[in-house]
Write a structure and sequence with these properties.
Cell_div_FtsA, globular, 5-stranded mixed sheet, Dna Ligase, domain 1, alpha+beta, about 30% strand, about 450 residues, ATPase_NBD
Length: about 450
């Protein structure tokens, strides 16, 4: 964990330096598209956020000065499986965004979906050395949280304190400066498959980009699609992407659970292509313009022209009803939502005081999916669109850009995480001291 802690801390410092220089890029690496936004910062505000306790927990004014998207290549289920193809796609979209912004960027913050995320709830407690809580006390209580056995080949992506308790007072966001004797902390830890993270980092390095941060797509989509009251009272954000469907639950403005389903809108397009025997590109177009999940009497009479280039005139010129198209799409959408419901039940979503569900992502644009989700999930469901940020082009304001816009908020208004605090010396393993002593002996 010490090596991970140091690498995450290094990325935080790199992000801070890039923000001070004024320009940074955010990259949403998805299965259907790769989106890049270039941000220019006007400088940090002179006040600190009420919801943060770490050195990165401030606010910065920013605007989008460049935006670009391209079709994903070499990415499946939200994970990179073809490094060379993904590298070309990332280079293309970053160069297009730099051209639109008229400025070169070297640092990027990236997000991705998939990678088998798992959530853990950790708790730590420390007796205060002094009666006044200091930042060192917070660091000690975070370090006191026992990290579970994550399993081989897994890495921690997020480790956020979600609640502090000082003596008998709980629900504290920032306990510094308060008086007490015992400090406790609840922390949410999210782990993902190490291979997926390393593959993404390797791909970005081949593109000559310095990684200043990495985040879960489900987390950043929730930051942009949920309004402030929903994040405070409790809500679930379902990001219906092309290759994976991300799920995140927020409470008290913090993410307390995240998961992903390895199914998305691409499977719906494949079902259409196989069911109607048409090319995949045409299936995607038909899904976009004529798709739906509820059939009415009018849909029997609405005919869709199918064209192909096989050379067989009768097969190349066909017409199908919209009812037939809906009959192909609905079972797959129901399967995705049923899987999401199973994940919500495992997370104990029914026990939250507020049970609002927000759908976002490109898959939420299918007409009628909100009504179908309300029946399957049994909760209040609304369609979520990303928050408006300054300079964001109209073409990037749709639900499919929730991850990219959430990355902007993740960069400008970061929540404190475990690696924002200095680890107390007693928490370092003995080999770290030996390595430090050897370094001092060789260099002094």
């Amino acid at each position: 964990m010490t090596d991970l802690y140091q690498s995450q801390r290094a990325m935080r410092q790199m992000r801070k330096a890039a923000m001070q220089r004024g320009v940074i890029a955010v990259l949403d690496v998805g299965s259907t598209k790769i989106a890049c936004l270039i941000l220019r910062f006007d400088g940090p505000d002179q006040f600190r956020s009420d919801d943060g306790v770490g050195p990165m927990a401030g606010q910065s004014q920013f605007r989008v000065i460049g935006a670009a998207t391209t079709r994903s290549r070499g990415i499946r289920f939200g994970e990179i499986e073809g490094v060379q193809e993904a590298e070309r796609a990332i280079r293309t979209v970053v160069q297009s965004a730099q051209k639109a912004a008229g400025q070169r960027v070297d640092h990027v913050i990236a997000c991705f979906s998939g990678a088998g995320p798992r959530s853990y709830g950790l708790a730590g407690q420390q007796t205060l050395a002094d009666t006044v809580v200091t930042e060192q006390d917070i660091a000690r209580v975070l370090a006191a949280c026992e990290i579970p056995d994550l399993g081989d080949g897994r890495e921690v992506l997020h480790a956020q304190p979600v609640n502090f308790q000082l003596d008998n007072r709980t629900g504290l966001a920032d306990p510094r400066g308060q008086i007490g004797h015992s400090l406790s902390c609840d922390m949410h830890l999210l782990s993902v498959e190490r291979a997926a993270v390393e593959c993404l980092l390797h791909c970005l390095k081949r593109c000559d980009l310095e990684v200043a941060g990495i985040a879960s797509s489900a987390y950043v989509a929730g930051l942009s699609a949920l309004v402030e009251d929903e994040q405070e009272l409790g809500a679930a954000c379902i990001d219906m992407g092309g290759g994976a469907t991300g799920l995140s639950i927020f409470m008290k403005k913090h993410m307390i659970y995240a998961d992903a389903v390895r199914m998305g809108g691409d499977l719906v397009s494949r079902d259409i292509a196989m069911g109607l025997e048409i090319p995949l590109a045409m299936a995607e177009r038909i899904k976009t313009f004529h798709g739906g999940v509820h059939a009415t009497g009018m849909d029997d009479r609405e005919m869709i022209e199918l064209t192909a280039d096989t050379g067989d005139w009768e097969k190349d010129r066909r017409r199908v009803s919209r009812t037939e198209l809906i009959g192909i799409m609905r079972p797959r959408v129901e399967e995705i939502l049923e899987e999401v419901r199973a994940r919500l039940d495992v997370a104990g979503f029914d026990h939250l005081p507020s049970q609002q569900i927000v759908l976002t992502g490109g898959g939420s644009l299918i007409p009628g999916v909100d009504g179908l989700a309300a029946r399957i999930l049994g909760q209040r469901v609304r369609l979520g669109r990303p928050l408006r940020v300054q300079g964001l082009p109209q073409a990037a304001a749709g639900a499919s850009f929730a991850g990219a816009v959430g990355l902007c908020l993740f960069a400008a208004h970061p929540q404190d995480e475990w690696w924002d605090f200095e680890v107390p010396p007693e928490r370092y393993p003995a080999r770290s001291f030996k390595r430090a002593l050897r370094w001092f002996r060789d260099n002094w």
